[in-house]
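Lab manual, section 2.4: Encoding a predicted structure.

Procedure: take the sequence of the chain (277 residues), apply the prediction step described in section 2.3, and record the output as structure tokens. A sample record is shown.
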Amino acid sequence: MRVIASSVAAFVAVASAQAGLVNPLIPAWAGSANTQSAQWESFTQASGGPNLPDSAGSSPFSLFNFAPGAFVTGSGNLYSINTALSIMIMGGTAGNAATPTQVVMNVSTAGSLLNSAGARLWLFDNLGNSVSVAPASVEVRADAPVPPQGSAQTLALTWDLSGVSLVASGFRIEMQASAPSMALDAVRLDLNYNAIPAPGALALLVVAGFTAGRRRRCPHLRLIRGNLPATPPPARLRAAGGSFWEPVRCRSDPTATRTSPCSSDRSTTRSSPSTPT
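Recorded output:
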């Protein structure tokens, strides 16, 4: 009797643990243009049937469990005592002809842990081509013990697809429980179709702008104050009071010279006439 009571207590604790995602990773681009999002807070189909998102504004994706013996608990969780849940999420990409650059999935489970290392994202096109991608990162966003066994976790899995050349018409995500007695509590999926700047790109742009700014400010002429040289310069280089502008080489481009002064040119005073170099 004690064994039965313990098993019932474990089932009740795991099957009803958590109530949605805890501290999920919501990307800054979520909800903006050229993105998709879907969220499941409760489930209706235990095995084989599609579970549609139940959050307002969700994209029409479907979530399936293909492990036998699962059932839906009173709190809306997917749960199996004797088999490991085998979950698949399927859907079409934007316009059925685009590949997301980044995908973020938050998963809330209780009891046995999710086998996050085995999760895979598949992309496929209308010609039968496909590619499988492992998560670029897995982050534990929340973790709490569930007596008498297991943990209640929220995981964030992120995929970087910026290097995928396949023009995808659809996708699917496959993931499994690491062992029986895992409850699937909630899932949120976000897909981004906007270009992601390469690491350091912004820094390079800043450096390029700074360099260009320095080149624009480079003095190509300098003002010589004093008497005109023995060989007078062209009229366009003469200044008031007998001074004149003398061309100098640009440090950034030794072959460049100017034929008129710019506002940032430095000035010097020459005490004796000379011929411009």
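Check your result against the sample. Residues 15 and 69 are 14 Å apart (CA to CA).
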